[in-house]
Every structure is written in structure tokens, then in C-alpha cells.
């Protein structure tokens, strides 16, 4: 049997008042007498009445809900970031609808349609590795709904963005390897289309140039961030005529898998090959050897992105700003280097 959900009609009938009076009492309207409001709230509590926030949002032309779309949940980075965003949203009185695109452009497009259907007041998003077309996101601009990018951003849209010092962090990581006497430093990067990969590659190249180490194109590989493919590219590096003595990886999951595979060959880390990652995932300090990595302020990124979105929501469209907030990184030196 279908369960009956209590409505304002039920409360109105029980108390012998109009449904409009019940509605005003539930939303705190000053025209409702204090005693009547107390009776309505008490009965609503007794009957486990659940307010329809979507309908209330339509009346107010605001849903008090924001959306967040992330590309994956397979590592700790994005869940931590969501926690930060949710904390800030809650402080400001907003609910958060969470969705993940599973690194699929088509799924991202579908997720965006769901957010629009739920009439979110704004959207936070980190794009997938496949996303090269942004028409589905430009709809938000045309509709006057604010959007904020974080981590993986769209350079062609003039909207707020939150990133970290990817280039500087990568530069510091590679310079650290050079200070340890490493000279054949490989870079296992991500898709060339992602801006974070471009920035980290630029940092890698800048460090080599500063220390007058010739760039060897054999030591730079882009891959699609599918972890089971790391084996292909690690084996490629190891089978070079002159194998690298260090690998700077695009992120920690890539670096952790590289450590596992290199250990299986009997090579020593860091004596034969040093490894550095990027992000400081929670498992990075637990593996053996522990991973040297570039730490990102993950929760702060989520909180900052949410605050930028809330600020946009509070402004008229004509007053929208498009700042790019760049957060600091820090090199965490551990045993892998």
C-alpha cells in the first residue's frame, strides 16, 4: 500500500483553518497569530510533515540549493573537496546536490540537465577528462545562473575559478628531484586537454630549463588517467635505452601505482628511481615507501569555490565578477624521493 505523505491540506483540515494560513505559518509570515503558528508547527511535527522545498523555491524564485559535479569518487580528493564545499554551503543556508560524472562527458551533460531541472541557484563543477565542448555549461550563463569551476576548469568561460599553484608546485617537485642528483626525470602526465596537466607540464619544463637539463621528449607521456594503464607507461619508461632515474606523476594515484609496479621489478625507490606525486591523498603517507607529493589545500578549495558561488548568487547578473583564486601548494618530502 502506498504510504501517505502529510500535506498542508491535512494540517488545515485537522485544525479547521485554510491551507493558505497553514502555508504562511510554516514560512513564518508575520500575519499569522502566534498561537495559530505554534499549533500549526506542533501538528506538522506530530504528523512528520516534510516541507516541499522545491515548491517553496518556486514561490521565492530561489531553491536554496546549489549543485556540485565532480569527475570521480575513486580517490579521496573529490570527497574531501565536497566536504569543504558542503560546510560553506550549509553555513550560508544552502543545500547541496552532489553528482559525479564518472569521467564521462555524456554523463556530465546529463548531470547538468538534472541540475537545471532541479532549478539550482548555482553550480560548482570540475570537468571530466573528456570535456572539450562547454555548450552545456554556457546554458547557465545564458539563464543567469552562476557557475564556478574548481580544480579542472574551463579557460574559455569568464566565470569564477578556484585552482592551485599547479605550475609552481610542479616546478618545486622537479627541482627537489634535481637537488637529489636526478637528471633523467620523466613526467607521466594526464590528458593534454586538461588545464591542470598543461600547468604541471609547464612547471616540469621550467625546472629542467632552469637547471640546464635538456628536455627529452621520450620522457614525457600523456595518458587518460585510467589507472590500469599506468603499467603500460611505467614499463615503457623502464624499457628505454636510458631509463629515467625519477618520475614526476600527474597525481598521487598515478604515483602510487607506479611505486607498486617498480617495486615488482626489484628496482629500488628512490635509489634507482625516485617518485613524486601531486595532491597528498591520505594513503600517500601509508604506502611503502611513503610518497613525496605536492600537497593541495583540498577542503579549502571546496570552501572557497562555494563561497565564490554564494557571492555570485547574492549579486545581480550585471555585477557578477570572475576572479580566479589561486591557492598555495606545499612540497611534502617523504621516502620515495
UniProtKB/TrEMBL annotation:
InterPro entries (alphabetical): HTH_LacI (IPR000843), Lambda_DNA-bd_dom_sf (IPR010982), Peripla_BP/Lac1_sug-bd_dom (IPR001761), Peripla_BP_I (IPR028082)
Key words, A-Z: DNA-binding, Transcription, Transcription regulation
Gene Ontology molecular functions: DNA-binding transcription factor activity; transcription cis-regulatory region binding
CDD domains: HTH_LacI, PBP1_LacI_sugar_binding-like
Database matches in SUPFAM superfamilies: lambda repressor-like DNA-binding domains (SSF47413), Periplasmic binding protein-like I (SSF53822)
Stretches assigned to the HTH lacI-type domain: 6-60
Identification of the protein by name: LacI family transcriptional regulator
Species this protein is from: Pararcticibacter amylolyticus
Lineage: Bacteria, Pseudomonadati, Bacteroidota, Sphingobacteriia, Sphingobacteriales
Amino acid at each position: 500500500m502506498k504510504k501517505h505523505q502529510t500535506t498542508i491540506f491535512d494540517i488545515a483540515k485537522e485544525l479547521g483553518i485554510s491551507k493558505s494560513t497553514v502555508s504562511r505559518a510554516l514560512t513564518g509570515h508575520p500575519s499569522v497569530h502566534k498561537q495559530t503558528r505554534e499549533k500549526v508547527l506542533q501538528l506538522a511535527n506530530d504528523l512528520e510533515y516534510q516541507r516541499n522545498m522545491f515548491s517553496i523555491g518556486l514561490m521565492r524564485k530561489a531553491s536554496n540549493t546549489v549543485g556540485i559535479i565532480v569527475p570521480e569518487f575513486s580517490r579521496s580528493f573529490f570527497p574531501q573537496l565536497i566536504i569543504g564545499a558542503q560546510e560553506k554551503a550549509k553555513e550560508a543556508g544552502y543545500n547541496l546536490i552532489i553528482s559525479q560524472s564518472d569521467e564521462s562527458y555524456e554523463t556530465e551533460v546529463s548531470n547538468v540537465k538534472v541540475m537545471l531541472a532541479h532549478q539550482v541557484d548555482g553550480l560548482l563543477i570540475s570537468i571530466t577528462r573528456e570535456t572539450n565542448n562547454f555548450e552545456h555549461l554556457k546554458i547557465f550563463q545564458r539563464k543567469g545562473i552562476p557557475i564556478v569551476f574548481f580544480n579542472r576548469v574551463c579557460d574559455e568561460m569568464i566565470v569564477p575559478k578556484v585552482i592551485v599553484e599547479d605550475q609552481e608546485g610542479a616546478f618545486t617537485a622537479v627541482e627537489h628531484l634535481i637537488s637529489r642528483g636526478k637528471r633523467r626525470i620523466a613526467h607521466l602526465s594526464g590528458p593534454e586537454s586538461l588545464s591542470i596537466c598543461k600547468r604541471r607540464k609547464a612547471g616540469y619544463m621550467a625546472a629542467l630549463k632552469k637547471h640546464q637539463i635538456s628536455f627529452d621528449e621520450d620522457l614525457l607521456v600523456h595518458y587518460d588517467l585510467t589507472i590500469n594503464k599506468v603499467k603500460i607507461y611505467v614499463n615503457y619508461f623502464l624499457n628505454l635505452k636510458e631509463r629515467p632515474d625519477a618520475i614526476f606523476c600527474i597525481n598521487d594515484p598515478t604515483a602510487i601505482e607506479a611505486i607498486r609496479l617498480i617495486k615488482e621489478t626489484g628496482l629500488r625507490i628512490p635509489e634507482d628511481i625516485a617518485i613524486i606525486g601531486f595532491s597528498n591523498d591520505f594513503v600517500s603517507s601509508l604506502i611503502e615507501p611513503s610518497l613525496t607529493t605536492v600537497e593541495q589545500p583540498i577542503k579549502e578549495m571546496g570552501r572557497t569555490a562555494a563561497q565564490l558561488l554564494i557571492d555570485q548568487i547574492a549579486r545581480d547578473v550585471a555585477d557578477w565578477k570572475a576572479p580566479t583564486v589561486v591557492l598555495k601548494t606545499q612540497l611534502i618530502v617523504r621516502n620515495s624521493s
